[in-house]
Amino acid sequence: METKSQVPSPRVAYQKSKAKDKSPNLKISFLPLLRESPKSSHSAKKITKSSPKPQSKKTKAKFQNLTQRNPKNSSLEDHSPGFRELNLDKKTDTKTLDKQEVKQKSQLIIEHLNKILEVKPEKKEFFEEKSIFRRRASCENPQEKVSRISEDLRIFKVENNDDEQDEGCQGVESPETLRNYGEDACLRQENEELKRKLAILEEEYCNDTNELKKNIEKEKFKSNQLKSDLEKCAGKNEILQSKCEGILENFKEKEKRYKIDIEHLKTQLKETREEIQKKNLELAQINEYMQRKRKNSKQKEQQMKDLQEKNQLIESDKNSYIKELESLKSILANTLIELQCQKSSFSSVQSQIQDFSMITIDNLTSFETLQAIKDNYYLLHTNYIKLQQDLYQLQEKSCSNEQNLLTVIEKLKNYSQNTMEGPVVTEHKLMRMKTFTSSNSIDVISQDNGLRLMKKINALESQAGLYKAEIDKLNKDLAYHKKIVEEKHGFISILEKQISSKVD
């Protein structure tokens, strides 16, 4: 017993190292690491809560220093499985584990940790760690952080209480357990070195977080300035939108009026075309009638010529007969003077009777032709008067349509000038306010509206030109038909004069 009290046993060294671990340096391990992934921390938390079989107090005292107190922040659980996970995965008792397997696994874990801490991470890994920390910091609420730290402290206190109870309940242990305690002390020293390295990394982490906070404050200030600018631009944009809506409403109303006027003009055009078609049909009928009359007049002229030729033949025969009679008279003058006188008187009376009968026949035919020509003349005269009246009406309608179209075009031009002057003023105001985004959008909208108005004005002007051209064509057609009617009237008057001269 005296030898045991003089020489410190490995159990006492283990307890002293354990007491050193209870120092406040452990609080640093509760901070989140850059290489920590949220999935591994949540999985470790679930395993600790849902473990059905608790570990024995001796195994806790052996392996608690190889793993960190907080399961969320342990780099061992991120890169390699811890002893707690190994014990929980196996549902059998912890006493069945072989000591050699535990030694091999602990050596592998230590080698893996040394490799991680000795190798310096590259810049890419550092940026990845920063991004992971940002995501975790943004996703985790302050209440969750407080609950997580409180749970870690509670677990740490429970483990300390279990260790104190184990010290009171210690009995005589085997030499194998003493060897294990010596190995645990070596592992504990290595763990202290790892903690020192972790403290250095956490200092770097704190510096990085401070820089990030400064950058975040700068960006917040910039975002507030941008928000104020955006609010100003939004107010201006609303005012300009209201103006644009008013302009568009006026434009739509005027467009509706123009459409109504165009439809009215189209109906008038249809009516005028129908009237022109009717007049063309009447003119065609008149032409057919005139052609028939010409044919009849030609036939009558031929008949007159035939009759004149017959008269000439008769006259020639008559002259021959007269000569013969004169010769006979000269021969029989001495003998039959009285008879010759009677015969001459009788022949003269006879010739006069024949001439009178021929003249009466000619007079009858000429009177009939005169009456027919007069009837045709009266019909043509009435048609000519109607055509003149229709022509005057069409001229009045065309003049009124031209005046209406000119007034509409002048209104459209004035409206287009006003609309083109509007966006220029808005451009000067926008240049003074120095709002680039809103000014560009409003300029584009105003230019588009102006172009649309100009296009519609050009379309209306082209339609007015077409209507004017059609009216000019109608006027030309009426003038042409008027000339034809006047020529026919002159021709009829000439025929009447000829007939009257022949009758006289």
Topology overview:
Blueprint: H1 2-6, H2 10-21, H3 38-49, H4 57-63, H5 75-79, H6 83-89, H7 99-118, H8 123-139, H9 142-168, H10 175-331, H11 337-433, H12 436-503
Helix pairs in contact: 2-10, 4-9, 7-10, 10-11, 10-12, 11-12
Keywords: Coiled coil
Biased composition (Basic and acidic residues): 75-92
Coiled coil: 248-342
Structure description:
With 504 residues, the chain is mainly alpha-helical. The protein folds into two domains: 8-168, no CATH class; 234-503, Orthogonal Bundle (Helix Hairpins). Helix content is 86%, strand content 0%. The protein has helices at 2-6, 10-21, 38-49, 57-63, 75-79, 83-89, 99-118, 123-139, 142-168, 175-331, 337-433, 436-503. α2 (10-21) crosses α10, α4 crosses α9 and α11 runs antiparallel to α12. Residues 1-14, 16-97, 119-127, 136-140, 169-173 and 422-440 have low confidence and may be disordered.
